[in-house]
């Protein structure tokens, strides 16, 4: 006989199943559980069995066998696979370049200044972002396994990725703030307010992400917070980022205005110098993150695949652009590296020369005279 109490609601790390009467089977379409997958079979469904004693059978196991076929077909889609490959490849290259740039900025003390200190924190935030993008790319190649067996890991990865992206944008804002201050006034030349910079770069993103996580945990009960971009809570993340990017755009326009005024007041300015100033200004775009303003809003529809590809390329290559343009192509950094290489080469040459000289002297010295025995005079 059936018991009066049925099976309670249960979370299987992927979906929250409703209470079910004892001795019955609850079935839900795969299209309802996995709205983000292609639905080639409208009748495909997942189910759980509630036994006559009011317990979920098989230890609460859910049969997703029909849905797994849809998930494997999703891998044939060109766009998600291409995005994962772009994220994995370009983020790995960015990771290597960021590590090299951090080593350069941390090793050579002659480069130490407020601007380089801000550069290091920007590189650290981009380094964390590159790590998270690599994790997202790896998960994108095997989405079913990640969602099904480690929902907490998926959410943790999403939180860290969101924080790193937000921190990198805010450190770009700090870069713009410092650059604008250095062009317009010399108040930060000696005593840059790094307490303020740390609060803007690391503190505000941490606070916004914490609020977002709490709201999502209580109000968005979906596997891996699927569809989080459509929730109203996403504005706790996107609004501060958009504001920071817009202010950076204002900084950039004002910097260009000041450069033009300075060039006009100098009658000896040449066209070559004008081109150099314009080129330097254009190089500010990847550092200040203004390029991301064009891709803050997903257009949806037929343009969404193009948006996803370009946005993935921009996000994953940001670290590469910053490390190359503002470290390895910097004339001051190149001069320091050249001097270090020259000293290293000279030291190696002197060491080898001393060894060769010592060996040469050893081989060319005449052998010691044989010991002559004293002869007694007779």
From TrEMBL:
It is a multi-pass membrane protein. It is found in: Cell membrane. GO terms for biological process: adenylate cyclase-modulating G protein-coupled receptor signaling pathway; cell surface receptor signaling pathway. The chain crosses the membrane at residues 81-108, 120-142, 162-183, 195-220, 232-256, 277-295, 307-329. It comes from the Eukaryota. Keywords: Cell membrane, G-protein coupled receptor, Glycoprotein, Membrane, Receptor, Transducer, Transmembrane, Transmembrane helix. Residues 1-71, 83-330 form the G-protein coupled receptors family 2 profile domain. The keyword Repressor does not apply. One of its GO terms (molecular function) is peptide hormone binding. Belongs to the G-protein coupled receptor 2 family. This is Corticotropin-releasing factor receptor 2. It comes from Araneus ventricosus. Pfam families: 7tm_2, HRM. One of its GO terms (cellular component) is plasma membrane. Signal peptide: none annotated. Its main location: membrane. The keyword Hydrolase does not apply.
